[in-house]
Design goal:
This protein has 13 helices and 26 strands. It is α/β, with parallel strands linked by helices. It is globular and about 75 Å long. It binds calcium ion (3 copies). One calcium ion binds at residues 157, 196-197, 205, 240-241.
């Protein structure tokens, strides 16, 4: 590594002025946190006497061969979380989001038990499988003693099918019902009124326009804050509740407990623009679900760094500097490592490198830090839903692989916590191509150059020492990873091992407010060209595009030749298995008639599948 002389001292100041000029929305009080999300039932069994709760049928031990058992309680409880607090403290996380602890139904719902906590029957008590209010208070106190904050998961959209209110004549108006008094399903996922009032997964839908219901839920929430001293709420199913409810609820809570009381909303849409209606409702942060898809597609499903950057650009516009909680997986999706045929652990580690070196409030799903396995959301043979396979019990002891992944994840968390630049500053792009991403994070004290290599091959790239956007004035030590950096003439050369990241301390003068750089058309060594054929004489090459995991599901054009009545499109792809559709005339999304494999898409149609060996 060669060091440069600091020939432009104003660099730090310029960077600060550019990075610092952006207005910060809401409050950033939680930007230093790293949140760990755990399902109480699946983390640790601290008290075997409560495993069967009020109904012995609620618990079937999972032994590795009976996945259906994962539809029942597995024994985890609040005492278990308390016993594992030292583990979480050493992992380095600073806050825990607990799955809902409310007393759940004592019976199953069409074969599924409410171990996850989202089917409450009593909002004022703790489920008997999880423990007592005393356990909950002890957990908050013990966490606080270690400097760890606690978020409760609040369920306001629905209750269990056998909640006593459902049959209470006095509570008839507490639910959204048809004129016949029945609940109705959500059938049109583009009809917002239906999304807010329909029965999600068949559960009775609370009438959150009714002032009695609003008061009940608000007072109940205050009860739990007053009882336990918890630090915030994760608010479930936000898009299924009327925005005016959230506006009122969040402002009421913040008025009484201050803006530091953290309320984070879950709006499960994949498109950044669908989050914008929720930006002015006084949440402290929202989950970056669209960002989850971009991360998964780029680091796990063959997407280019260009796709990730395109997402960032769109989100930067749509989120308008709103604080976002970032993630690589959670309990509602497959674990990151599912469906990745090769280098799954290395790819997950790189995704975590990106998560912990980029802006946002990182949220880790329990087990991700040890590479806990999962499976498809639908059983590939029966087609039945099986989200529970991504919710295995956290193991009591770790094998060598799990220990290694844990050490890598802990080290990354230490890196983020040791560098305020990684938590507080925006991202400024220096270089991007199909597989390599270089960006700056910086503040007045510290400037860092982060470089990621998303290829299965060792890669060397070069970029200008100085151009019309920035000027490097000094290259310092490598503070993370084991890359190589050399400055020659007017260029900086960086070499990175496969699926790896490195961070260098640098001095840079940034001379533009535009954080986006031009895309460099450079393939990494692991790209191959796949040919997609489409026989349709009236289409011109411009009329054919492709969208898939590997384009973050944005239609993309590639070089296309006409051969008789067949169009031949050349698409660069890296080894892996990918889902895609052809897009005709910028309008019609169809499965590929020539694909060897097809599989169901989430909308009742079919995705084509291509395997690149
Ligand atoms: Ca237990
Ligand atoms: Ca119960
Ligand atoms: Ca609702």
């Amino acid at each position: 590594m060669s060091k440069l002389s600091k020939w432009m001292l104003p660099g730090l100041l310029a960077l600060f002025l550019i990075f610092g000029c952006k207005p910060i929305k809401n409050n950033y009080l939680w930007q230093n946190e790293i949140i760990y999300f755990l399902l109480i039932d699946r983390f640790h069994n601290g008290d075997p006497t409560n495993d069967r709760g009020n109904n012995p049928a609620s618990h079937v031990t999972y032994d590795g061969t009976n996945p259906e058992a994962l539809k029942t309680y597995q024994g985890g409880d609040l005492q278990g979380v308390i016993q594992r607090l030292d583990y979480l403290d050493s992992l380095g996380i600073t806050a825990i989001w607990l799955s809902p602890f409310f007393d759940n139904s004592d019976s199953d719902f069409v074969g599924w038990w409410p171990y996850h906590g989202y089917h409450p029957v009593d909002f004022y008590s703790v489920d008997e499988h999880f423990g007592t209010i005393a356990d909950l208070k002890e957990l908050v106190n013990e966490a606080h003693r270690r400097g760890i904050k606690i978020l409760f998961d609040m369920v306001f959209n629905q209750v269990a099918a056998n909640h006593p209110w459902v049959t209470d004549p006095g509570k008839k108006d507490w639910f959204h019902r048809t004129s016949e008094g029945t609940f109705f399903p959500i059938t049109d996922w583009f009809d917002q009124a239906q999304i807010e009032r329909g029965a999600l997964h068949g559960m009775p839908d609370l009438n959150t326009e009714n002032p009695e219901v609003v008061d009940y839920l608000t007072q109940m929430s205050q009860f739990w804050i007053d009882q336990t001293g918890c630090d915030g709420f994760r608010l479930d199913a936000v898009k299924h509740v009327n925005p005016s409810f959230w506006d009122h609820f969040n402002r009421t809570i913040h008025q009484k407990y201050g803006n530091r009381f953290f309320v984070i909303g879950e709006i499960f849409w994949g498109e950044p623009e669908r989050l914008t209606p929720y930006l002015d409702l006084d949440f402290n942060a929202l989950f970056d679900i669209p960002g989850y898809y971009a991360i998964k597609n780029t680091f796990g499903q063959g997407g280019s760094i260009g796709d990730l950057s395109d997402f960032r650009k769109q989100a930067d516009h749509d989120y308008n500097s709103y604080p976002m909680a970032t993630l690589i997986d959670n309990h509602d999706v497959v674990r990151f490592n599912v469906g990745i045929q090769s280098h799954a652990d290395a790819k997950q580690n790189l995704a975590l490198n990106y998560l912990l070196t980029s802006p946002g409030i990182p949220v880790l799903y329990y087990g991700t830090e040890i590479g806990l396995p999962g499976g498809p959301l639908e059983n590939p043979i029966t087609g039945d839903p099986q989200d529970y396979v991504n919710r295995l019990m956290f193991p009591d002891s770790l094998n060598l692989r799990e220990s290694r992944i844990l050490e890598e994840t802990s080290a990354l968390i230490r890196l983020r916590k040791s560098s305020p630049a990684l938590t507080k500053s925006p991202l400024f792009e220096i270089y991007k191509d199909w597989g390599v991403y270089a960006f700056l994070r910086g503040n007045i004290d510290e400037q860092l150059l982060v470089v990621l290599n998303n290829a299965a091959t060792s890669e060397t790239v070069s970029f200008a020492m100085k151009n019309d956007r920035y000027a490097f004035t000094g290259l310092g030590d490598e503070v993370w990873g084991s890359g190589g950096m050399i400055a020659t003439g007017d260029s900086i050369w960086v070499t990175l091992q496969p699926f790896s990241a490195a961070v260098w301390s640098v001095d840079v003068a940034v001379v533009t407010a535009n954080p986006w750089t031009d895309f460099t058309e450079r393939y990494t060594g692991d790209y191959q060209v796949a040919i997609f054929k489409y026989a349709q004489s009236e289409l011109s090459p411009d009329d054919l595009a492709i969208a898939g995991d590997f384009t973050n599901w944005k239609p993309k054009h590639f070089p296309t030749q006409v051969d008789g009545d067949t169009l031949k499109m050349q698409v660069p792809l890296r080894p892996g298995s990918y889902r895609y559709k052809l897009v005709l005339n910028n309008r019609d999304w169809i499965s590929d008639p020539l694909a060897r494999f097809q599989e169901a898409d989430p909308y009742g149609g079919q995705n084509s599948v291509i395997e690149i060996p």
